[in-house]
Amino acid sequence: MVQKAKILLVDDRPENLLALEAILSALDQTLVRASSGEEALKALLTDDFAVILLDVQMPGMDGFETAAHIKRRERTRDIPIIFLTAINHGPHHTFRGYAAGAVDYISKPFDPWVLRAKVSVFVELYTKNCQLREQAALLRLQLEGGSANGVDASKETAGLLAELSARLAAVEEQAEALTKQLGEDSADAGVVATAAHLERKLTGLRRALDALEPGSAGGAPALPAQN
């Protein structure tokens, strides 16, 4: 049974958190509330999250400052952040969001289907990444056990590598479809950031998987961070 991914929802207004939960409940993942930037940073100390939905305008520590803290921490720097804002912002305001480390920037009121679709891609990527890491660890154990016992593990290795590759290919296909869909609106600055983030992560996973192939120079490397 695949463990559910955690999605962090950060907003100082309870009604907004309730609305986000209603939109994202169909994804059947674990939704975690935070009513301030400080509360969000505390949650990030102990739990791993697939994606963060972060309101820009909050009293005290706003979304930009919260994102800056998240990106400074090694544990959390690679978690994708989607900024949510009700402000009528100009190009400079949007640029500030991407400079703070956001992979997307969505203005309220937003289309529930679009938000759910974007979040689902990061959840899927996170889930597949976790599965790949677990299977890669299992593969290493089997290879080590086979070598220690004088057993030829080539068939099992080939089977596991094929399954790992198929799982990753499914994520690559889904990410390509999303990029194509979003690319229809070339004026959306979030397309570039979202596509670049997905491409970076998928490229890292594919390289790590290729390095596991028999005869590769890299042996069995550690897979990249989960997010």
TrEMBL record:
<keyword id="KW-0175">Coiled coil</keyword>
<feature type="coiled-coil region">
    <location>
        <begin position="161"/>
        <end position="188"/>
    </location>
</feature>
<feature type="modified residue" description="4-aspartylphosphate">
    <location>
        <position position="55"/>
    </location>
</feature>
<dbReference type="InterPro" id="IPR050595">
    <property type="entry name" value="Bact_response_regulator"/>
</dbReference>
<dbReference type="InterPro" id="IPR011006">
    <property type="entry name" value="CheY-like_superfamily"/>
</dbReference>
<dbReference type="Pfam" id="PF00072">
    <property type="entry name" value="Response_reg"/>
</dbReference>
<keyword id="KW-0597">Phosphoprotein</keyword>
<feature type="domain" description="Response regulatory">
    <location>
        <begin position="6"/>
        <end position="123"/>
    </location>
</feature>
<protein>
    <submittedName>
        <fullName>CheY-like chemotaxis protein</fullName>
    </submittedName>
</protein>
<dbReference type="InterPro" id="IPR001789">
    <property type="entry name" value="Sig_transdc_resp-reg_receiver"/>
</dbReference>
